[in-house]
Amino acid sequence: MTARERIAGNVAGYVDDRTGAAKWMKKNLTKVFPDHWSFLLGEICLYSFVILLLSGTFLTFWFDPSQREVIYDGGYQPLSGLKMSAAYASTLHISFEVRGGLLMRQIHHWAALIFMVGIVVHLLRVYFTGAFRKPREFNWIIGVGLLTLGIVEGFLGYSLPDDLLSGTGIRIAEAIIQALPLVGSYIAFFAFGGAFPGEAFIPRIYTVHVLLLPGIFLALITVHLMLVWYQKHTQFPGPGRTEKNVVGYPLMPVYMAKAGGFFFIVFGVTAFLGAVASINPIWLYGPYTPGQISAGSQPDWYMGWLDGLVRMSPPIETHALGHTISWNILIPGLILPGIMFTGLALYPFIESWATGDKREHHLLDRPRNAPNRTALGVMALTFTIVGLLNGGNDIIATTFHLTINQMMWFSRIGIIVLPPIAFIITKRLCLSLQRADRELVLHGRETGRLVRMPNGEFTEIHEPISAEKAWLLTSHEQIAPLELPELDEAGVRRPSAIKNKLRNRISRATAVAVPKASETERRELEGHH
Amino acid sequence: MSNEIELIKDPGLPAHVHRRADSDPVAATRAERQVAILFILSALGTLLLIVSYIFVKSDKFIFIPIMGKTNLQQLGLGMGMAIALFCIGAGAIHWAKTLMPDEEVIAQRHEFRSDDEDREEFIKTVKAGASAAGLGRRPLIKRTLGAALGLSALTPLLLLRDLGPLPKDNLTKTSWKKGTRLVTDPGDRPIKAEDLEVGAVAQTLPELAPGEERTLNNIGKDAVLLIRLRPEEFNLDAERLSWTYQGIIAFSKICSHMGCAVALYEQQTKHLLCPCHQSTFDVTRAAKVIFGPAARPLPQLAITVDAEGYLVAQQPFTEPVGPSFWERSS
Amino acid sequence: MKRLSRLRRHRAAGPILLVFALFTIGTTFQVASAVNSDGPTIASRSATIEEGKQLFLKGCSSCHGINAEGGQIAPSLIGVGAASVDFQVGTGRMPMADMSTQAMRKTPVYNAEEVNALATYVASLAPGPAVPGDEILNYERDGSVANGGELFRTNCAMCHNFAAQGGALTQGKYAPTLMGVEPKHIYEAMITGPQSMPVFSDKTITPAEKLSIIKWIKSAEAEPQLGGVALGRVGPVTEGLLVWTLGIGLLIGVAVWLAMKAR
Prior knowledge:
Chain A is mainly alpha-helical. Chain A has helices at 3-19, 21-29, 41-60, 86-96, 101-128, 137-159, 164-178, 184-192, 201-231, 251-276, 282-285, 301-312, 327-355, 371-391, 393-400, 404-443, 467-474, 497-510, 519-528; strands at 32-33, 69-71, 83-85, 245-250, 318-320, 323-325, 445-452, 458-463. In chain A, the strands form four sheets. Chain A has a two-stranded antiparallel ribbon. The termini of chain A are far apart. By secondary structure, chain B is an alpha+beta fold. Chain B is built from seven helices and 14 strands. In chain B, α2 (25-55) runs antiparallel to α3 (72-98). The longest helix of chain C has 24 residues, at 236-259. In chain C, α3 packs across α6 (112-125). Chains in contact: A-B, A-C, B-C. Chains A and B meet through α5, α7, α8, β4 and α10 of A and α3, β3 and α6 of B.
């Protein structure tokens, strides 16, 4: 035993005496993690969160979350002598007088954008591969919670500097609160400590942004990761991979090195963006005052789809019995997003109700093998993208020589018409891909080489695919549709007849598939050629 | 004869393919050297960061192709940090890929479900504990516990009451009164009718009483847009026409949709555009909404001139300005 | 036949005569339209007006009317002043070729002298805003950058965007970018209110305040990139675009490399 090994042994023994750590450390250091690039997307979010904590803490050492009025006497001449809030002035100080301050501000903001992009692509991966199915439904719900909270946290974060652009965003948020029936004006006055803009809002959202939400994030992310750890990660189907095993690499050393290395990659890319790309140049926006506005005012992208929905809303407001309800604000701003996020969170249960599939799943679906789910996802994505595009309709109009009026009408009609079209096209595409897979298994790969047979017939040579590939293309399950009875044994209509009929219909639509190739069919074909 | 369809079988994990570094020591040394170079690059990045922090002045700019004139310190700090971090990561990943063992390992999944005995034990334990607590047999305890917990839950809500004042009539009142002069924003200069040409626009606020301070809260309700047209271009009823003065018309600048400043005036079409959600208002018809999500026209301020010819308000706004709320009756 | 008569009937006679006639007309026109380089005397001012009138009749009257009274497709120019003409023609907006949306800044057709002639002619029709002289335009001396920024954000940013990059109006119209615009033209636009732009009277935005605005615009134009590539100075739209292309692209690229088996 070398000296180093002896010392390490002593340390390990010291810790184990007090915690019994050796047993679970041994088990966890050899834990197996499957390796696919798309499993790293969630890590992008995790590492971005750490970067946000680090860069954010740095910023808190100089930021003054107060709206009291100060006269600017810092180094940026175009704002010299102007009245502004202390929050805005301290952000200018960080940007221009603190070395590395602007870099850290930019890293913090780019990290926030990357965090949200990571969440969305991670969500898409989990959704389209069906990783949310039992036993991972609750992890999915936590994920949707993280998405929602991330949107709020980002909005509060970029509102802290109290500049013209983010102040406009706060004005719009206040209008949404104010529009709530019965309690709107009261909640708005409580949130803002009085009329808008007041002096209480920035200090209060500072506490939420720096303490409350990060605390909630830490808790949720910990549970999210613990569930992945305990339930083990899912894996793509392939040779040697079953529902009962995990094929991959052990935590120590491979996964530690790769995942740990990826943290530095994410941090490095974020720092690169912070170094070369300007973001949120608040000194150009100017301090917030309700009497000013800039052309092309948008929120950050993860709220852009909400802004787009608000823009395209028809001007509906009802006035009755001395009261007003602003449907043009409530529907796009609260009701629609509420329905969407609730539907998203409950989706695992909706799908298992529709298909009747209550089993555990640890093997992922190739998206083409779940055409209904994939098409539904593309439909929801289309809806969101139309909203997102409309959020930037004025900038798109000036860049591409369109009119904002055209963009609005395109969005109003498109958001209703395009998603169903996207659904149909995607479902058809998935079924075509299934058909292509079947052809590949049964007939092999087309090589493009032509051969003339002795009898004069021309045929193309097909190369049979490998056993591994054939397994990959046929290992998926094709669940039969539900056939729930409407009548009981005595022929009397059940109370749940309508529900059963609906479920049967939906599961039939979900079960539409091209039957997968089988060994039997292959052998039959061999006989022919 | 069997009617069963035989499915294609799982061929099992494919044979392991060795990497060059596994068998060839030269390739292994080369990989090791590549990893080392990446780590050295990272160290150089940190050096760049340190040098930029200590020695580069914050007001120095250099020209970089594609980027243009860039702040040198910002670039040095940022690129130094980026290289330092990225290369550590790249080095670690390359090390894992080329040198660490890459044989796939198979681990078994365990079933999560506890076995039936454990489940029954669990249910028994909970039942025993519940009956030991005796809530079922002692409804008085249950009810009073419920009341105590329920009431205490109200406390945090109550303690938040002083977060803000009640709105009362704050949302319905502005600083505009009969005779309040319109002054320029910024500048606080009163405006005479003849100061505005046809086609002119002015950003205005109510004149402050001596010693009075103007807060952002005031601006958020008081901001008014002044526009001059030719009188014959108006398409207003008699009352609204009487609120204008020789072609000059005044509107609240706070959008009736969600409160952004509506100051974008198109001189030829006589339209106002709010850049937040593209609501469009027709000035000739008392800011009637002609496009976009706003549901109400902008409130019009009745104006006239005082004895010295300065523009003044005839009366306060006849309706609340800004976004709608529950208590708004129209 | 006599020699002259024979030459007259030469088949090259026609073309040569044509070239000679064109040359004569051309040079006569050049000489006639040459502007006097001394300051405008009364005599030379009326010569300028006359020249301007000729230019006007040739290039502008087809839309604006023989007497600049306006018509179906173009407004009257009576009373618009020299400043309007100097702005519209000097920035190349006029003559307007593409009538679809709005007059765009393009390469001016007329040179500085011709612009001056046209402006003087139109100014002679009725009183209107004058071209600001260099003494008036000394924004470096008479303007304040900080005040100019405040004025810009209150009066201009809602159309032209916070960094004067331009913005959308309704029905395809737009407020153009103010980058690279001469201070004189900025001033003239404020006082004449071209097309969709309203007029900013000298009493509501004083001449000193106008100079402050110009000083701020020029300072924004000259401001080097403080945080990196500016991404158009239009706000979160381009920032989001960058993160969805370069940002996630780089990260997924590395992820794919990470999971690939080494050779």
